[in-house]
Amino acid sequence: MTPSAPDHEGERHASSMLKKGIVASKCVRESKSVPPRSKPREDGPSQLVGHHRQDNDGSSGCPRVFQLHLNFGHAFTRRQMGDAAEHLGFDGQMGVVHGHVRKCARIHGGGFFMNNLEEVDLTGRFGRYAAVLGLGSVKKVYRGFDQEEGIEVAWNRVRLRALAERDPSMVDRLHAEVRLLRSLHHDHIIGFHKVWLDRDAGVLNFITEVCNSGSLREYRDRHKHVSLKALKKWARQILEGLDHLHTHDPCIIHRDLNCSNVFINGNTGQVKIGDLGLAAIVDKDHTAHTILGTPEFMAPELYSETYTESVDIYSYGMCVLEMVTREMPYGEGESVGQIYHSVTNGVPPAALRRLRDPEMRAFIQRCIGKPRNRPSAADLLRDPFFHGIDDDTTGTLS
């Protein structure tokens, strides 16, 4: 059975029918009928009731409409979605069924999985709530839920429409990069679960693990008195994550490292690098060319459009500065243009000049020096700065 081209009027009809408990309707060219199930199948709290063909449906303008009836409950299983696909003539293509009704699902209170979800992915595994966890330079992060594993996740949405209009190849390239990043497994890198591109909406969606204490910036704002020992432990964990990215084959440059996309589990002190949606996969010369990032944390060479993974070391130094001072670098009321002028002319942020601890100041200065002089993440992990941090040390920097 071959589906017809998408029909918006048919979707509006599906929306109205959804209020009555009809989850999906799909227009088809052929008149072949699929017999209804002899009895409903029950899987947990939801029930597949059956389906039928409705001929000459005037409201949608479709000569043939198949409709799937469901009793709404807490969650529909993957097997039920497979049944839905089979009944509607898309055997083995659950995504097609859900893709046809995803916009309609909101009418029924946010989707056919849980009544307070705003959206579900095409497989039906991941759901998105309305609650926003964070905002990035091009990204919005929502609280999500993995219904298969029963755990909370982060649902990330990157809007690509403007980027696609400027350079259509960037969309496919970014999608491919995030797919590769999903294969990364490291204790100090946020895990990827799934990524997909919504071309109609111009949005790249990806699902990641979530750290319940939020970003390091938020955590540091809540906890103002932190020991030097704790700060060094966080700094070392970030470096371990960076070293994994930079020694990956191919090399991965984060490009937007800052304290808003480094996350922490407050009950364990474990830190993880996140917001990998803007990362670049680079070839053997370790060179990238796209300008992306957060101005206060961007290395000077990022503006020249040719750079290596050492830009992450610069950003890392600015992260450490923010962790220590609880101030944004160049937060002294400068505009983006003024920040650009300061960075490209080697003027350090005022927060660094005010930092009284000489060891900490020297460590940060190593990170934000000239590209050719910046140490690698592996070099920094061997720096005496980190010696003895597992011992009981005293003193705070705030």
Automatic annotation (TrEMBL):
Q: Which domain of life does the UniProt lineage start with?
A: Eukaryota
Arranged from A to Z, the UniProt key words for this protein are: ATP-binding, Kinase, Nucleotide-binding, Serine/threonine-protein kinase, Transferase
UniProt keyword annotation of Kinase present: yes
Nucleotide-binding in keyword set: yes
One Pfam family matching this protein: Pkinase
Give the matching SUPFAM superfamilies.
Protein kinase-like (PK-like)
Which InterPro entries does the record associate with it?
Kinase-like_dom_sf, Prot_kinase_dom, WNK_Ser-Thr_kinase
Q: What is its EC number?
A: 2.7.11.1
Annotated segments matching region Disordered: 1-60
Give the Protein kinase domain ranges.
Answer: 127-386
Q: Where is the composition biased (Basic and acidic residues)?
A: 1-14
Give the catalysed reaction(s), semicolon-separated.
L-seryl-[protein] + ATP = O-phospho-L-seryl-[protein] + ADP + H(+); L-threonyl-[protein] + ATP = O-phospho-L-threonyl-[protein] + ADP + H(+)
GO MF terms here are: ATP binding; protein serine/threonine kinase activity
Query: Main EC class of this protein?
Result: transferase
List the protein's name.
non-specific serine/threonine protein kinase
Q: Which organism is it from?
A: Triticum urartu
Question: What are the top taxonomic ranks of the organism?
Answer: Eukaryota, Viridiplantae, Streptophyta, Embryophyta, Tracheophyta
